[in-house]
Amino acid sequence: MHNPLPEVLLCFLALGALLSFAQTSKHLTIGPYSNFLSWLVIPAGVAILWKLATLYGWWTIAVFIAVSLLVGTINAMTARSMGRDFLFSMQPILGTIFAASTVAAWVVGM
């Protein structure tokens, strides 16, 4: 029997990184790499939600809202304590995480 836990964990990691990247990149993208990754936000988001929907069905909407609220809260606390510059400097790392985790979630599930 197939264990969906690795796929789910990769999807949550990808979704969290994607939401954090999207929340900072709507204000400012730093460098050409972050600018390139900003074009992948929507396709990666659709791919993550599609993967989660194959596992959870309509509960995916609740999962997306919960993760979005959690990431928004973490970003707000980080921006307040460390400043927005720290969040902007994390864009390349977050972008790499969401892109790699999205691909890995689909590859692991095959």
Number of DSSP helical runs? 6
State the major sheet. Answer: none
Helix and strand pattern: HHHHHH
Instruction: Report the mean per-residue pLDDT as an integer.
Output: 87
Q: How many beta strands in the DSSP annotation?
A: 0
Provide structural commentary.
The structure is a single chain. With 110 residues, the protein is an all-alpha fold. The protein has one domain. The protein contains 6 helices and no strands. Helix 1 packs across helix 4 and helix 3 runs parallel beside helix 6. It starts with a helix and ends with a helix. The mean pLDDT is 87.
Give a quick summary of the entry.
By secondary structure, the chain is mostly helical. The chain has helices at 5-25, 31-38, 41-56, 59-82, 84-89, 91-108. The protein is 85% helix and 0% strand.
Layout of helices and strands:
Layout: H1 5-25, H2 31-38, H3 41-56, H4 59-82, H5 84-89, H6 91-108
Helix pairs in contact: 1-3, 1-4, 1-6, 2-6, 3-6
What key attributes describe this structure?
110 residues; mainly alpha; 6 helices
